[in-house]
Give the backbone structure.
Amino acid sequence: MINYTDTLREHKLKATPQRIAIVDALLLNGHMSTESLYSIMLAKFSSISLATIYKNINLMLENSLIYEVKLPHAKSVYELTKSSHSHLLCKKCGNIEDVAIDLEALVDKISKITEFQIDKTDFVLSGNCKNCH
Amino acid sequence: MINYTDTLREHKLKATPQRIAIVDALLLNGHMSTESLYSIMLAKFSSISLATIYKNINLMLENSLIYEVKLPHAKSVYELTKSSHSHLLCKKCGNIEDVAIDLEALVDKISKITEFQIDKTDFVLSGNCKNCH
DNA sequence: TACATAAAGAATAATCTTTATCTATTAAGT
DNA sequence: ACTTAATAGATAAAGATTATTCTTTATGTA
C-alpha cells in the first residue's frame, strides 16, 4: 500500500490509517459508494464504524480531496479529485468510466447566450458499455 | 387551474385531485424538490400525507411523466418530462433553468471513441446567473 | 523520545428521509 | 347508480445520515 500521508496533510486532514485506506480504496477502485467503501473498509478494520466513513467522506468533500458524482437511477459515488472530466455510466453492468471531453468552447457559447457565469460542469453519459452491447 | 386528467391517464395514472395538483405545481414552478412540493401541496390539501407525495413521485417517475434532476451540492428536483435538455444551476440563488444544447455530434464522437452506446445525457452547468454576478 | 493537546475513532443514540402497511375513500368503467 | 381496483391518509417501519460521548491517537513541541 502506498502512503498518502502527505496528500491528506496537504488537505489539512490528519493522516489516520482509516483515511489512508479510504484514499487507497478510491485510487484502486476509481468510484465508490458509501456502502461499497464501508464493506471494503470492514475488511481492513473489522471494528470500523459506519459513522467514520460518513464523517471522513464529508470532511474530504469539504476539503476537496474527493468529489461526489451523482448518477441517474443510482446512488452517488465518490472519486479522488482530479482534473475536470465527464462520466460514462453503463446502465447494464453499472460500470463507471472517466472520459476527458473538452467542453470549453461549448460552455463559453452557452455562457454568452444565457448570461450565466459557468464555472463547473457535471456531465454523465449513460448507455451500454463495450461489454454490454 | 388547467385540467391534466388526460395527461395523467395517458401515463396510466388515475387522475386524482392530488396528482393533478402535483402536475400543476411542476408546470408552474419548473423544478421542485420533494419538500417544496409537499409544502405547496399542503396549502391545497391540508391533510395530505407526505407518503402520498413520495408514492406519486415514484409512480410518475416509473411512468416517465416526470424526470429526476440530480444536482451537485443540492437535493434532487423533479420536472415534467420534456424533450432532452440540459440544466443551468445558479450556485448563489439556487435557480434552475432549462437550456437546449445540441449534444448530438459530441455524443456521437464520444460514442465512437469509447465504444459506449450512449442513449442519454445528464448535463448540469453550475455558476452564477445573470442576477447573481 | 516523551508530553500535551486537539482531533479522530468506535459505539450508539438521534434525526432525517423514504418506504411499507392498513383501512377508508374514490376514480373509472359498466 | 354499482362494482372494483386503485389511491389517500395515518402511521409504523426501514434505511440513510448525523450527533454525542468517551476513549484513543496523530502531531507539534520541548
